[in-house]
From TrEMBL, chains A, B:
Catalytic activity: thiamine phosphate + ATP = thiamine diphosphate + ADP
NCBIfam families: thiL
Name recorded for this polypeptide: Thiamine-monophosphate kinase
SUPFAM superfamilies registered for this protein in UniProt: PurM C-terminal domain-like, PurM N-terminal domain-like
EC number(s) reported in the record: 2.7.4.16
A Pfam family per the record: AIRS_C
Gene3D superfamilies for this protein: PurM-like C-terminal domain, PurM-like, N-terminal domain
Known function: Catalyzes the ATP-dependent phosphorylation of thiamine-monophosphate (TMP) to form thiamine-pyrophosphate (TPP), the active form of vitamin B1.
Positions annotated to bind ATP: G124, D125, R149, S216
Binding residues annotated for Mg(2+) 4, in chain numbering: D33, T48, D78
Positions bound to Mg(2+) 5: D217
Family: Belongs to the thiamine-monophosphate kinase family.
Residues binding Mg(2+) 2: D50, D78
């Protein structure tokens, strides 16, 4: 029996999310024409939207709970990159048919990550059509403390959190284009399917990082955004780019470095820090328990310049674009 | 030549929207990981999301500027139904291919309605896939003045703005299922393609209406939401439902009444007002220049009860559901 849009929303999202996420700043969530929310005083609202389309951003066979997790994580990663605390989420879900078991699993995955990060699903729309998920995530930063891409200055050091390239390798494995040992396979695929939005790192960078963004299109492509927005050049030592042992053992060092630079969907933070705030950075990220690595320096000029052991590297990969 | 996602966004949305909508509360709009916005003090945030899918919510041959208009209008209508002032918008646009002329027209339509209502496009995502548009609209109400669906009480009068049924008739005309004179055709089709979000009416109803929603699924279906949320019954006099002369002349009175009750996509406001605030209503909506009509009364009990010239009507239509 086909179930109606209202029943769908009621059954799988409204109840679960209201039960799981009792945020006091949600005056009214799902169930009216719009949600009504209370933003904290002296804060600014931070808003981002991302769409995931079947066949483009995820494979047809992805488990619904994993898809829900990743859809939310990708949006939270954008909030993290601004230094924001996540608070609320709206979901626009387009489905080819009323598939109750699929929906139940998707809702469970969504509720789980919302609970984990303490965010509330406050609105949504369910429509029929090709499988597409659009999330709008909202959060806040103390007034004036949002971290943009355009703040990098010559002399600032370039950092990334975590390791790069794992997600791109995980995707290749899922596509059947790369073989790996069972352990490495599990690790790399999980890094692709369940990236960790760096919320804690992002908020720790307030007042410390001069520029920040998340790495979704690969280090090379995304660093270009910072360089362009800040009107500076970036100088990157390839051998300093942090790699997981799983990636190096699976691909070999040189190929691992290429994937780490050109791959995508890392959802790690890429940020710049002035020399004078390097000490504060170590303290802040140390307290947050987030690994981070200096991979180079911002200078005057333009473009990205790669080095290998201090020597200019002319053969560095240059990233990719979705569309 | 294919153009990239970044160029697309840059060319058609970022520049146009930043030029057209210089809201001072947009600290940073499109072009970073997320937008940063300043909400006014002592207000609450109002958020709604709607998706429009080709073939379900609009016809393939729709003009892109009209599609942009309608996508925004539908979301603003939800904000209006809460009594909110609209402020910001994010757009997730999924397109089957990079079609520059289409995008240019879509962006022009979007910029036009954004300028008209003084709202700013603050973020977006452009992806490849079947044509789908998801908008998230944000606005605000003074704290505590949002108007919900659940506030109707026995004795309250039931009102609607404007006329009902025109949009449903316009859609039938577009589908080739209904003939009309040239004048009526133009009027009814325009009412379908370019509904007027009742922003001014919605904000005028603050402190006056006990419950409010917009009519998107037809009067019968939507009134059921108010009745259910408020745990009351509604008593509607069919002959009082406001009809345009174009609708009556095209369909005849009785069929026009049926379409006005069961049709959809009117995007008029449906609201209830206690007897004691009827005078305030006339003043407020009179000043806003919005026509409105009393169509019945809320009583204890449940369900919707239709009358024709005071006699119980058992044959009233019951609305439709999208999904």
């Amino acid at each position: 029996m086909a179930i109606s849009e209202f029943e769908l929303i009621e059954r799988y999202f409204r109840q679960g999310c209201q039960r799981g996420n009792q945020r006091k700043d949600v005056l009214f969530g799902i169930g009216d024409d719009a949600a009504i929310l209370r933003a904290p005083d002296n804060n600014q609202l931070v808003v981002t939207t991302d769409t995931l389309v079947e066949g483009i951003h995820f494979l047809k066979q992805i488990e619904p709970a994993v898809l829900a997790y990743k859809s939310v994580a990708v949006n939270l990663s954008d909030l993290a990159a601004m230094g924001a605390d996540p608070a609320w989420l709206t979901l626009a879900l387009t489905l080819p048919e009323s598939n109750e078991p699929w929906l139940a699993e998707f809702a469970a995955g969504l509720n789980q990550i919302c609970e984990y990060y303490g965010i509330a699903l406050v609105g949504g729309d369910t429509t029929r059509g090709p499988l597409t998920i659009t999330l709008t995530a909202m959060g806040h930063v103390p007034a004036g403390q949002g971290i943009y891409r355009h703040g990098a200055s010559p002399g600032d050091w370039i950092f990334v959190t975590g390791h790069l390239g794992d997600s791109a390798a995980g995707l290749k494995i899922l596509h059947g284009d790369l073989a790996a040992s069972d352990d490495h396979r599990e690790f790399l695929v999980t890094r692709h399917l369940r990236p960790t939005p760096r919320i804690l790192a992002g908020r720790s960078l307030r007042g410390i990082a001069s520029a920040c963004m998340d790495i979704s299109d690969g280090l090379a492509g995304d660093l270009r955004h910072i360089v362009k927005a800040s009107q500076v050049s970036a100088h990157v030592e390839i051998t300093d780019v942090p790699l997981s042992s799983a990636l190096v053992e699976t691909l070999g060092l040189e190929q691992a470095q290429r994937v780490a630079i050109a791959g995508g969907e890392d959802y790690e933070l890429l940020f710049t820090v002035p020399e004078a705030r390097k000490g504060a950075l170590m303290t802040a990220l140390g307290e947050a328990g987030v690994s981070h690595t200096c991979i180079g320096q911002i200078r005057a000029g333009e473009g990205i310049h790669y080095y290998r052991n201090g020597e200019v590297e002319s053969d560095a990969p240059t990233g990719f674009q979705h569309f």
